[in-house]
Amino acid sequence: MDTLNDYLAFVVAILVFLAIPGPGNLALLTSTAKGGVRGGLAATLGVIAGDQVLMWSAVAGLSAVLLTTPWLYVWVQWSGAAYLAWLGWRMIRAQPGDAPVLQLQAGHYFRQALVITLLNPKAIVFYLAFFPLFVRQDHPHIQLVFVIMAVTIAVLTFLYGLVVTLLAHRFSTRMRENTRLTLWLNRVAGVLMLGFGLRLALSR
């Protein structure tokens, strides 16, 4: 990034990607519905941690390893798909009074969101393809630029997660007493999670 316009374009791109529906967003909403603001923020921190691991892994060349080692890429891809499908199936089968699919301790929300984020090989490859749009390989301060990008991603993700958590908490508080509606929303979330897992399994 050589100019302010480059940085602003990077910020806009990150915001657009954050808003795209996916398992991370669904995990954030589900965590908030089950664990309130604390659960939602814990899930947000899990997503941030996962993104940072993927980002620096891409910088270190892990994405190139995945692309040149098909069996490893497929293994990570199917592991992520199986995990999402397992969560989705549990959500669909859940009944009123059952233990929550996502545990109520904030630490579990963090780990759940972290695992969902990490078990997506396409995210690592995405980061490697994304950075060259904003950074020249011969940039004299390329490491500093990567640090700025990493901090920007973390801050924007936290602010996005905070807004989504507060809005989701306000909505979930109003409908929490409606057991039937809660049950069906949980099943819809489960179907979506299964769909994300299937999409990841079939993607190339």
Q: Can you summarize this structure?
A:
The chain is mainly α and about 200 residues long.
Element-level helix/strand string: HHHHHHHH
Strand content: under 5%
Largest sheet: none
Q: What does the overall shape look like? A: globular
Terminus-to-terminus distance? 30 Å
Structure classification: mainly alpha
As a percent range, the share of helical residues equals: over 70%
How large, in whole angstroms, is the Cα Rg? 18 Å
Q: How many E-type strands?
A: 0
Contiguous helical run count: 8
Please tell me the overall pLDDT.
Answer: 76
Sequence stretches where pLDDT stays below 50 over 5 or more residues: none
Number of domains: 1
Textual characterization of the structure:
The structure is a single chain. The chain is mainly alpha-helical. The protein has one domain (23-202). 81% of the residues lie in helices and 0% in strands. The protein contains 8 helices and no strands. It has helices at 4-19, 23-60, 62-68, 70-93, 106-118, 121-130, 142-175, 179-202. The mean pLDDT is 76.
SSE layout and pairings?
Elements: H1 4-19, H2 23-60, H3 62-68, H4 70-93, H5 106-118, H6 121-130, H7 142-175, H8 179-202
Helix pairs in contact: 1-7, 2-5, 2-6, 2-7, 3-6, 4-8
Give descriptors for this structure:
mainly alpha; 204 residues
